[in-house]
Give the backbone structure.
Amino acid sequence: MINLSSLDINKKNLVIRVDMNVPINNDGNVLDATRIEACIPTINYAIANNSKVLLVSHLGRPTEGNFEEKFSLKPVAEKLQKILNKPVELIKDLDSDSIFKSETNIQVLENIRFFEGEKGNCQSLGKDLASLGDIYVFDAFGTAHREQASTHAAIENASTACAGLLLEKENEFLTKALDNYQSPYVAVIGGAKVSTKLELIKYINTVADKIIVGGGIANTFIKASGLNIGRSLVEDSMIDIAKSIFEQGKIILPSTVVTSKSFEGDDIKEKSVTDISDDEMILDLYLEDDTIEVINEAQTILWNGPIGVFENYKFEKGTKELSQAIAKSKAFSLAGGGETLSAINKYINSDDVSYCSTGGGAFLEFMEGKVLPSIKALNLKKNGR
Ligand code: AMP
């Protein structure tokens, strides 16, 4: 894979696929600019090297072929302008005369999902995107697992394509945990459902020394171990596979959990996991001293998914203590996933984690050992061509 920093980009026109898919409220305000901020290093690098940039991103899930105001990138372009303190121009169409022609060095193409062919990885849309500039830069790690026109066909059709600074960093840190990890390797897999993370759990089970499970995922494993979990979130279709993974001895289940009969938590109880009644739900769990010790001794830690319903402060203790334990650890720690990053921002300093990935689905697939389609397409370009 060719990196942007290895190419001569002086006075070149760069089409950069970024991931600026941010939450926007009904008044058109960006609620969380993290993903926009993650694109800034590549944009600044390009501008500092006298390039012009056209940024390409998706936002939400509009119907292809239609313009819908609520999915417009206008608020994103405005936010970017504020962050950069430089003019940013919104471009509506691929045949616009102003692409790379106006005074403005930074342009944002309207939501790529408005354009026919994006979803289906259409070659002609890919070609159109690729031919707008001199170099097609792929920096949207969060969508690198999707084979679409702007994430795949455009790379294939570009005369020169390379990875942006964010993708380069994601690739470096995730590869470190995937291939060059040091043992003991501890994974913490939380969140709602086993099914969305089954491939990751299976893969991690082959490389990690211990797997701490939490959230709805822990519930499925607790049930698979033969205990009653009452009305807790569970996936019955995953019980058999959970049982076979559990029998391999790497899974750490909680002993003490927090239960309630409702998500509001009006009647919370701290109790042994062996003592759950039929009308209760497990909504948080505690890390035992032995489990904290496992984290302390780890050389590599992978974390994806909160271990309780941390959005409600009554069920945040487990996730909070886990974040603090990871922050204190000397291990190489890697975290990914939207909820995981919210927990990190809520309870610790993100600098206390070695690397926080911007990917959700892409992070999971990368850590399952898959080569993501965009990365595969970039790898196939010889010298970026
Ligand atoms: P995921 O996107 O799969 O990582 O799931 C994150 C969500 O799992 C968060 O919004 C949590 O509120 C939720 N969650 C964590 N623990 C539990 C639990 N014990 N029961 C139900 N939901 C949970």
In short: The domain at 4-164 is CATH 3.40.50.1260 (Rossmann fold). The pocket of adenosine monophosphate is lined by residues 191-193, 196, 215-216, 219, 233, 282-283, 305-306, 308-309, 311, 337, 339 (CB under 6 Å).
